[in-house]
What does this fold into?
Amino acid sequence: MRKLQSTSDMEKLRKELLRKQDSSKSCISICSGTGCHAYGSEKVVSAFENELKKQKLEGKVEIKRTGCHGFCEKGPIVVIYPEEICYLQVKIEDVKEIVSRTIKAGRIIDRLLYTDLKTGKVVHESEIPFYKNQTRLIFGNNRKIESKSIEDYIALDGYNALGKALSEMTPKKVLDEIKKANLRGRGGGGFPAGRKWESVCNAPGEPKYVIVNCDEGDPGAYMDRSLMEGNPHSVIEGLIIGAYAIGSHKGYIYVRQEYPLAVENTELAIKQAEEYGLLGKNILNSGFDFTIKIHRGAGAFVSGESSALMSAIEGKVGEPRPKYIHTSEKGLWDKPTCLNNVETWANVPFIINKGADWFKTFGTENSKGTKIFSLVGNVNNTGLVEVPMGITLREIIYNIGGGIPNGKKFKAVQNGGPSGGCIPETQLDLPVDFDELNKVGSMMGSGGMIVMDEDTCMVDIARYFVKFLSQESCGKCTPCREGLRHMLRILDNIADGKAAEEDIKRLEELSEFVKEASLCALGQTAPNPVLSTLKYFRDEYDAHLQGECPVKVCKELIQYYIDPEKCKGCGLCLNKCPTGAISGEKKGVHTIDVGKCIKCGACFEVCNFDAVSKISGKERNLKELTYN
Amino acid sequence: MKNISLTIDEKNVKAQEGMTILQVAQSSDIEIPILCHHEDLEPYGACRLCTVEIIKNDKTKLVAACCYPVEEGLIVKTCSERVDKIRKIILELLLPLAPTGTLYALAEKYGLCECVKKSDEESEWRMIKELRFPAEKPTYCTLCGLCVRYCAEIKKGNVIGFIGRGVDRKVSLVPEENCGFCRDCENICEGGKFFSLLEL
Ligand SMILES: Cc1cc2nc3c(=O)[nH]c(=O)nc-3n(C[C@H](O)[C@H](O)[C@H](O)COP(=O)(O)O)c2cc1C
Ligand code: SF4
Ligand code: SF4
Ligand code: FES
Ligand code: FES
It folds into this structure.
């Protein structure tokens, strides 16, 4: 590897790399992201390597291990270039056929393609509705480059923005471009990045620090991790450009220890960038010096909070501290510090390359660009989706997500991580941007999006999130720790049918209190799931007060019941019941002894005649009568 | 140090740059209740009892007085309705955990309890309001962290620390860890944990 001396030197390298890439040559690109890896993608890679040898195609066909494509539930994903044929859920047994039929004979294997319910088989990755309806500016390159190759990144115009910034732009000009683009933070509050950079730049004190926040502790969210794993150079390039604009010479990338692949690929990427002279002293002969260190954080949700994260890098306990003096003035070791999210940094090279005006063509008035969401829950297509801001929730859930599975009805979508709010059906046409989500009691957060169908109990959901937050808060301040403890107690009581109207008042009062009085944003947002469900699904809370869980989820409020009309007396349930609560003669009607029943639901699962049902509330009283 | 003037409870007060609202209030004889603050220790901001309302650029905000650095022209209200409500709930939450004289005395100011004389020598705390947030059992610890921080910051020891997070957070002693048995932690504790530990 040679140290690049200038932007023209880099341009020369890029041309060389492109020349070497024969675009007519077949390339098998296999996703090696964490999701596909878990489905065995590494074994598929070795199988391809062996098979190519066997069929004497070694060296004639390239193999690429890429980062996450986003459609992880269908992994391992294999895409054959140049035709862009996309095979899903590829197994080792499929490899031989793929090589002999697709690579050699150019034929398509139907069974490995995506099947669209309306249009049938889809050959090309970009035509799969899940991808087709996305705008993948930031995440799109993940599937095109080998995650461990800086050359792949450079060939795709990587580090071009850095070259441009260092050779053609003053730090002030870079800063102005980011400000003009109105890039807002993708990690939580949506604070304008340009304004943050500017305050760090103007704050007195040296040295100044820049940090990447790759803690990502929201359950179910993995966009930052996938970006860091799949395309680490895009984040690093953004960070170097930011450092140049701010006047910082030292950066940190905070990565959660539990993301070994992200740590590995980031370490490698830093080393590669150093070798090419894109990090270190006198980068591209510009006189600008910058180095990056990785900090492996011990995973805790609260460690992602800015002041907690900085304390952790300093070697102290990762707990939030009061930020009345902003971290942009006194952050890491009390020096001016700029902390941004992984995705925020990854946007920077795009803005510098293509300009703020181009960037602003995506998004809404006050939320520009795209956002990556982690779409999970009761939705047909789950995965990582990147969309322009301002797209409606409905478009994301139905056009990209493919709607709700099993013919169920949509009930709510929870946005922004554990402390986001639940949004009901009536708000589905809401444009997704920072301000609109806040208005309805939710938030962008880092981009979690959990879809819930009609079988979801909203009291149970509120309880789940409050429980998570009460365990994941640091426990330092009274309102968050004690407030959440008692909110959870009340929610438990509601779910158990042991609460009264005044408990709901108390719950509301505590929610307000925790929001207002907590030290950090974890506590300040923690009541959102409660307040939003109280606002949009109050009837469900009321039903619980009356002893009924309308969707029959809350264990204490339901009972299993065998319909005598439907029971065929097959005895399956009787055999399955672990507590011997079911009795009945062969071919006779079976009944459940409520006293012995532990509500495990085994009978409900096993009955072939739909005779076992869950009942709750008034219905329960009626049925109980008929038992006696 | 720059001189600053600000308004606390409609009183004009002078201060110096770098002081916290609490320091300025104390030097002007304005009382703000505190629990986790100690003048020899770094501001911590955990109990939130010192919460006050500030008005800055026409916006109202709640802040912890023990941590917030004063600025020119700042308007502070130390006992608005909003603030009192918050302090009351904090005390309602903490009192069942640490039913000690300090907490009762604070709660008394917010009308939660009263001191009843039983005889000339003896008096007793009695609740006026029903306890809305009972504890499973008292821990005699408000998790104010005074002991932990005093040991670490002043004594440069690590004999006391927090374990667990969220609702499971606890103070834990590690006596074999260089404890000089100065017992300052015991004296600084308002919750009664050390008292109860030593009794055992
Ligand atoms: C409890 C809590 C957890 C957070 N976790 C993360 C996280 O995992 N990643 C992240 O980028 N920001 C996280 N944040 C937001 C950060 O505090 C900070 O605002 C953000 O990293 C700033 O970057 P941005 O402006 O680019 O979004 C968290 C905030 C809180 C209160
Ligand atoms: S709000 Fe919660 S997470 Fe934040 S400092 Fe307080 S206890 Fe810790
Ligand atoms: S033991 Fe006492 S001093 Fe230590 S945190 Fe608990 S209440 Fe505070
Ligand atoms: S890990 Fe392969 S698509 Fe996400
Ligand atoms: S005294 Fe200020 S937060 Fe405890």
User: Anything to note?
Assistant: The mean pLDDT of chain B is 91.
